[in-house]
Amino acid sequence: MKRFVVRRVGYALLSLVVLSATIFVFVRLTGDPSVLLVEPGASKADIDGIRADLGLDRPLLVQYAVFVKGLLKADFGRSFYYRTPVLELYLERLPNSLLLAVVAMAFSLAIGIPSGILAAVRVNGGWDRWSRWRSRSPSASRAASWPPCA
């Protein structure tokens, strides 16, 4: 059992490393953030100054190492757009995100439990057939499958 847990934790850590590296590289491949942060028509010196301030003038591997070092210290960096710490932005938005998740779960339970009971009580009835069809339809796998006609 101990070996199983250690292996799973190892896989989880490996997944986090691969995920963080993938996201880091894809964010950098989408373009130079310093170009988006300067005024239109800014000089090359202004862009180079922003790149130096943000550490974007360093090699990609050095940028990733600095990023991982910050993560280990719970420093998620600064937002390019808001220019405030990312952790601060995350914690500021967390209550609304949790509220949204709780309300969505309440709706899911309020609709799902009675629907399941109704389908179980009247096996092969209209509601049961519709719910079985709906669960097998391709739109059931999409997150945005409501309204049904969409």
What features would you describe in this structure?
There is one protein chain. This protein is mainly α and 150 residues long. The chain has 2 domains: 1-75; 86-141. It is built from 6 helices and no strands. It has helices at 2-29, 33-37, 44-54, 60-72, 86-121, 126-136. Helix 5 (86-121) packs antiparallel against helix 6 (126-136). The longest helix has 36 residues, at 86-121. It is elongated. It starts with a helix and ends in a 14-residue tail after the last helix.
Strands, helices and their partners?
Layout: H1 2-29, H2 33-37, H3 44-54, H4 60-72, H5 86-121, H6 126-136
Helix pairs in contact: 5-6
Write down the oligomeric state.
single chain
Hey, roughly how much beta strand do the residues contain?
under 5%
Q: What is the terminal separation in angstroms?
A: 47 Å
Provide the gyration radius in Å.
24 Å
Please indicate the count of domains: 2
Number of strands: 0
SSE order: HHHHHH
Helix content: 55-70%
Structural class by helix and strand composition: mainly alpha
* Net shape: elongated
Uncertain residue ranges: none
Major beta-sheet overview = none
Mean pLDDT across every amino acid position: 85
Number of helices: 6
